[in-house]
Amino acid sequence: MNVFYATLFAATFLFTCSSAIKEGETCVNDKSCDSGLQCGTCTGNVTVPPRCIRIRPHEPVRKVRGLPFNRYSWLMTHNSFARMGHKSDTGAVLLAPMNQQDSITVQLENGVRGLMLDMYDFEDDIWLCHSFHGRCFNYTAFQPAINVLKEVQDFLEANPTEIITIIIEDYVTSQSGLTKIFKASGLGKFWFPVSRMPNNGSNWPTVDAMIEDNQRLVVFTTKSSKEASEGIAYVWRYLVENQYGSDGMKNGSCPNRAESAAMNTTSRSLVLLNHFPDTPDLIEACKHNSAPLIAMMNTCHDAAGNRWPNFISVDFYKRSEGEGPPAAIDLANGQLVCGCNNIDLCKPKMAFGDCGSLEDSPAPTPTIEASTSTTAAAMGRGYKNSFADSDGQRLRFGWLLGTGVKKDASFTNNTTIILLRDWRAYDYF
User: Fold this and answer.
1) CA-CA distance, 343 to 57, in Å (whole number)?
2) What residue range is the signal peptide (predicted)?
3) What is d(CA 79, CA 419) in angstroms, rounded to the nearest whole number?
């Protein structure tokens, strides 16, 4: 009899492990969830079991092809390079904010198609830094930019139908500095030329044409002079965006960023929605990336002259209460591609807006369960340390939160500490 029960238990265990758990179902770890999901929970109640949460949006081009680039929406990560657990390639301790959990490669594998990269002159090279006053320091320098660009190059080589957009927060002053690193990385052959970008609000080329011509890398810079000198598009000539940081997250308001034209300026074909606070917060990202994100997308849709975002930029893109950034992207793509509330409702050759009986209700809005646990902060507010494909560890220094570092921060090896009391000293965000 004991042998029978042991055999039955083993068979049940193997069946459970081999059957991928679906979205919303309880789980043990990330590997037990279906593809595109991770195991976790954002609630403060540690008795609530973790469940499989979607982290990857559906791919709109696989649903309906042949549309202009500006008729799709793409998930973008803010400070894509600023990864938790990353150690500066300078060897110094990083005293810089960290906004993501994954490497660039893992982000791309999870459906991210837009990257925000801060580039600086540093050590006779171009580096990715999260710094201030236009200068990079060894304690704000992550790694040489070419490392990340080569990750992008590898992804484009391996995925011949994918398109990636890069927005460079540009502090590079060296002569043709950006041109040189893009050429050295091997990305030049994927370059989408400025000459093909519409600057009057008209449609972009179709994604099919971009793929066929192998012009699958769209690059923007925040320096206007480089459009003429290096052929890199000045971002605000082609795109409008809302205010970044906490000021851009106020309910019912969607002001434009100072450098951007007004949100309803139709001479810009692309719309960027920023949705992240001044201070990156792994815990609060669950809340920010859930119901408030959907609400802000609707607010900015109205502010942008009834236009849905082509890019949605967030911190910690995998953190949400269940739907989050993937749901926002799917909703935006549904509206852009076929006029429905979800890209899954779009079919080839269907009439725009003819959702009919396919659509019973709008895309589900995530619900937020407030934390009531007194040990929520210490326990990660109930979230399990099982971030898919990430280091799964706390920020060693958290970040310098106004009055100093977090209590659990530790410093050794005679590290020099610089406390920045005002986050806004940092270059943009």
Assistant:
1) 10
2) 1-20
3) 21
Residue 167, strand partner residues: 116, 220
In the numeric block, the tokens 């003819």 are attached to 354
Cα torsion at 68, 69, 72, 78 (round to 10°)? -170
DSSP annotation of 407 reads: T
> Which residues are CB-contacts of 282 (< 8 A; sequence separation ≥ 6)?
84, 101, 316, 319, 380, 395
* Residue 348: other Cβ atoms inside 10 A: 9
Alpha-carbon distance of 313 to 150, in angstroms, equals 22
Instruction: Give the separation between CA 261 and CA 240, rounded to whole angstroms.
Output: 6
Regions of the chain where pLDDT drops below 50: 4-18, 359-426, 428-429
Q: What is the pLDDT of residues 290-336, one digit of tens each?
A: 999 999 999 999 999 999 999 999 999 999 987 799 999 999 999 99
Q: Report d(CA 350, CA 345) in Å as an integer.
A: 10
Cβ–Cβ < 8 Å for 118, 169: yes
**Cα–chain center distance at 227:** 25
Read off the tokens for 140: 């704000």
145-158 vs 177-185: helix crossing angle, rounded to 10: 40
Which domains, and CATH codes, for the chain? 55-369 (3.20.20.190)
Kindly report the CA angle at 48 between 29 and 318, in degrees rounded to 5? 50
Q: What share of the chain is helix, strand, coil (3-state, %, to 5)?
A: 30, 15, 55
CA 241, CA 223: separation in Å to the nearest integer? 16
